[in-house]
Amino acid sequence: IDRLRMPYSERIDYCKNKVSAKLFKIMLEKKSNLCIAADVTAVSELLDLADQVGPHICLLKTHIDILEDFTPDVIQTLKDIAEKHNFLLFEDRKFADIGKTVQLQYNKGVYRISSWAEIVTAHSVTGNGLLDAIKGSDNDTKGVFLLAETSSAGSLINGAYTQSTIKMALQYNELVTGIVCQNPLFTEHPGLIQLTPGVQLQAGKDNLGQQYNSVEVVMQEKGADIAVVGRGITLSTDPAKSAENYKKLLWNAYLKRIE
Ligand code: 5IU
Predict the structure, then answer these.
(1) d(CA 220, CA 245)
(2) If we measure between CA atoms, which residue out of 242, 188, 176, 250 comes closest to residue 220?
(3) Where is the Orotidine 5'-phosphate decarboxylase domain (predicted)?
(4) Which runs of consecutive H residues, i.e. helices, occur in the chain?
(5) Is the Cβ atom of 147 under 6 angstroms away from ligand 1?
(6) What is the ipTM of this complex?
(7) Which end of the chain is more exposed for a tag (fewer CB within 10 A), N or C?
(8) Which residues fall in the annotated binding site?
(9) Does 231 sit in the ligand 1 pocket, CB within 6 Å?
């Protein structure tokens, strides 16, 4: 088995996590393997962006804590936009604490992440307790992307850490939607989804260590199933058009990969 050559449609049967199956279905319906990183700091900007790029994305990735004017009612509006355009809400919280603390961070506070984000990210560094905490939370459809590699320069993650993270993902396959990484890993596990950030039209970097690969490279060489694009879209003059362009390029690159 090689997930890289397998159509998304055939991978649904291998999904142990409900959200990953749901996500594959959305990707197929919308012909989109694009996740937007909606890293904006004003609520109006976030809602506008979500509504504009909505038709072209499968996932909206948020950092809800960067909003300067967050109020709890924002969540219902965001949920409505997600439903209107058929994409999932994905909070990139990168949980990394002991289980008890993650339980509080996931369910409590002003953001009440578990009440709206069907997918969250988590580090594997603190061990199983964190995943047990998320698993034990009483919202029923939930998924986690575990971080096995990062796109940033000088990351301290090494190969052993990456491999142990994949093992953890497989051990928790009912909860884990997939893995965030930069290389074609776990190719023999088609039920797990590879999410890859650090994507723009051209390879490059920013001035704070972010490193970008092109659409073709991430899809065809690096094994991405879903690409995360932030500033490549958010800083363009027409985010909707830009998202549509990324969507088409990413989908074509996927089709070439499974040819
Ligand atoms: N992100 C990365 N790289 C990583 C991980 C997460 O860029 O390795 I893990 C997040 C950070 C940001 C988005 O929200 O993905 C990328 O945004 P830009 O396309 O604007 O760089």
Answers:
(1) 18
(2) 250
(3) 33-246
(4) 8-11, 18-30, 43-53, 73-85, 99-107, 128-135, 159-171, 215-216, 231-234, 239-258
(5) yes
(6) 0.99
(7) C
(8) 39, 61, 151, 210, 230-231
(9) yes
